[in-house]
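Minimal example, chain plus zinc ion.
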Amino acid sequence: MHTSALVLFSGGQDSTTCLAHALARYERVETLAFDYGQRHKVELDARLNVLAAVQSRFPAWADKMGEDHLLDAGILGQISETSLTRDTAIAMESSGLPNTFVPGRNLLFLTLAAALAYRRGLQVIVTGVCETDFSGYPDCRDDTMKAMQVALSLGMDRKLLIETPLMWIDKAQTWQLAYDLGQRADASGGGQALVDLVVEHSHTCYLGERTQRHAWGYGCGQCPACQLRAAGFERYQKA
Ligand code: ZN
């Protein structure tokens, strides 16, 4: 019986929904993010704002929220040249992958997360990877996750579950999932309270823009991350 989880929590829409998923399911939930010289500290601020908002608006979940961890993964900056860590524009490479791709990043993150989960006695790792709105990241594939689950469980000699609640749903369904989880949390405002929280506090924009407020939240509205989030929100509202 799994009772505790570690959520890979960046403060974006996806990982905020994953946090709610874990809080709805497990008794003790800890959160983890990596600092690897992201261009925008706004992401790291957003995650603290999300955590504070969840704690104040969802009392049933607040009691389950344990330690929040921030690990330095700055070593990624030494070995990668991508538009998320350097000042280059977001574009597609000849490989067909966007230049936001950091080779092996998720593999490293999952390994670090598993080591932390081991030390903290947490049984499940929850991550918001997704094949549906696929950016082409091979380390977000379901097969990669399953292989990592086996490798980490064997290598640490402890059964570890990697849970990916968003793997097969699109961005519109991710908004719907937030609504449903919020509804089940029995907070005042119901499902809409969690959707509002995601809109207001989570951060997705690659450019770190938080001055323009749209119906779907803050962002430049132009970058691929904003466009995906905006299009998903629009489809969600029409459904
Ligand atoms: Zn943007």
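The two ends are 36 Å apart (CA to CA). Residues 101 and 137 are 7 Å apart (CA to CA).
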